[in-house]
Amino acid sequence: MQISEPDPIPFSQQLFSTLKIAKVFRHSTKPITSLSFDDTGEVCVTSAEDESLRVYDCRQGKLKATLFSKKYGVNLARFTHRQNNVIYASTKEDDTLRYLSLHDNKYIRYFKGHRKRVVALEMSPLDDQFLSAAMDDTVRLWDLRSSACQGLIHISGRPTVAFDQSGLVFAVGLDSNTVKVYDLKAFDKGPFDTWVVRDPNLPYMAPVPEWTGLKFSNDGKHILITTAGDVHYLIDSFSGQFKQLFVGHSGVGNIKGGGEAGFTPDGRFVISGSQDGMIHIWDIQNPNPDGRPMTSLEGLTATVGVVGFNPKYMMMASAYTELVCFLALGFFHCRIGWKGVCYTRTTIVPRHPESYWMFPVFDWSDIKGWVSLRTHSEVISQH
User: The CATH number of the domain where 291 resides is what?
Assistant: First the structure.
């Protein structure tokens, strides 16, 4: 049976309403601090306070591997552009960054230089360069091919960092009130723009919530500033103009990873975890005047400390002490019964110009199992 390609389906409130919990992984004994998908969207890695790295197969819905870094600790695990390699920050012994092969659990390279805790670590979307920022008042530029630091910026205050979608520009957030924007090829000349970001709802000189992360949207229009408090901020990525604030959630505090909020792949929606166990979603194009969420989903865990959207498939993940995976169940589904499970076609969603986002849409009557893309396509073709 051949299934024709359906029309593209944009992100919408209706689509979010179909996201349901499809799988829960209860492997971690302590809070998960970071979550990263690889470029293909087929694999996810988490780091946790139990000093573990866990690798999950997103197509099969299975735990692939568990690795431990008991001697050095682990945080801010990030995939490189190779599915079997990750970088992460040490939390014990020293503040070295480690480049690890997941295939054989061997270190490929060490990146030494930071003297205090690393609080931000981001891969370039373009190549093998990456940024790190630490409490030693430095931001460092590295290249996976060399252990030598490629560039150093001296700053003051707790930093956050982010690459834009082109990989040619990066931003540094400082002191929970300032964003500095740099040209990657000329960062030694200083920032080409500096913006002071103020919360319009806070009285002058009132304490502000600590910034925990910066994120550029994939469409290049916005920067999301995540905080440890009950508010996140959105600014224009070209002018630094304040655009929106996001409230209605309960801040999860500084969970050491800065992954408590992020964009959907199309850049239109912001998702955030919360201490109340909910995942809150805001619409950037049609915001509520009071800054409250468009909709909220129950996250299963008592606290949702980390959230992330798969870059290729219609899959959202949240975590605290458990990793919870959401799929769009029942959206444009084609019911084909097989062992109590219903299957649907694969759908294409526009992500940004010249790019398409492939994702599977499932409708399960029994979600104890997990259906791979390969299996679901084969089953459909057999009917």
Answer: 2.130.10.10
